[in-house]
Amino acid sequence: MTSIDVRDLTKEYGTRRAVDHVTFGVRPGKVTGFLGPNGAGKSTTMRLVLGLDRPTSGTATVGGRPYAALAEPLRHVGALLDAQAAHGSRTGRDHLRALAASNRIPAARADAMLEETGLASVARRRVKTYSLGMRQRLGIAGALLGDPEVILLDEPSNGLDPEGIVWIRELLRRLAAEGRTVLVSSHLMNETASFADHLVVLGRGRLLADTPMRDFIDARVQPHVRVRTTDAGALKAALAGHGHDAVEHEDGHWTVTHARVDEIGALLSAAGVPILELASTEGTLEQAYFDLTAAETEFTAPHQEP
Ligand SMILES: Nc1ncnc2c1ncn2[C@@H]1O[C@H](COP(=O)(O)OP(=O)(O)OP(=O)(O)O)[C@@H](O)[C@H]1O
């Protein structure tokens, strides 16, 4: 089993510190979502793990060794950083075969990965004729070519169609279930919530969180109870009688925070309040993420006064 270990990693470009004393580990058998606003340092960290850039200080290792020390690295670590990186004048198949040859991977594996990523029908077309989504799929095929234990994908959902989004979600879950170490950056919170077990969050180059996804959400967003009724007065009175505040929303539903659905259901029912809808609402990753990064965002739109 192979982990990625980042220890006190710092990368400076001139006076700009892109990664600032970051320490975290990415463990096998899980999908770790890698989040953070634009410019937070995610891609730089991935490049440092892959030995594509030298750290100013600190270390990044895979299975305890720097990437550069791995023999036939594609057999250990697969990565998609930039879907535009493939040579446009080559066919998708030739691109994968060249990658395979340089890592002593059997050529048949290239065809298997074209099949796996849904590219078999366009395998003999030049990469320059591929759509963004097709290039993403080709990049993912390249990452999986060497059957690696460790997989790093930088925004793999970028450009994928709805069917592709479902496909990548299932692929990531399967890779983790096979015991692989999977690190995936994304700006899509709903997507990340659908595949990640664990989260590493950066902001302005610093580590903001390294935690199981459920804990990340629960620590920041209060679950609440959602209610709809035909008798708002009775609802408010019944809740107030038990020390609960209810907030009414534009579409007519109410939310009760710091409350459990079974308690609210029982007390409204006992008070004879007519209930049209009663549900427990969990916090979302998007809410929790905004809560954490609001103060950290480097490039936010200026706040507009109404
Ligand atoms: N080669 C480079 N030379 C100079 N500055 C760089 C270089 N690469 C990255 N940076 C800077 O480092 C910081 C981190 O960038 P990075 O691309 O790692 O962020 P990111 O979290 O991947 O952002 P995004 O979500 O926009 O992809 C940014 O301020 C960026 O401008």
From TrEMBL:
GO molecular function term, any single one: ATP binding
Origin superkingdom: Bacteria
Signal sequence segment: none
Keywords tagged on the record: ATP-binding, Nucleotide-binding, Transport
PROSITE patterns per UniProt: ABC_TRANSPORTER_1 (PS00211), ABC_TRANSPORTER_2 (PS50893)
A Pfam family annotated for this UniProt entry: ABC_tran
Residue ranges annotated for the ABC transporter domain, each copy included: 4-229
Membrane in keyword set: no
Electron transport is among the record's keywords: no
Family: Belongs to the ABC transporter superfamily.
Stated name of the protein: ABC transporter ATP-binding protein
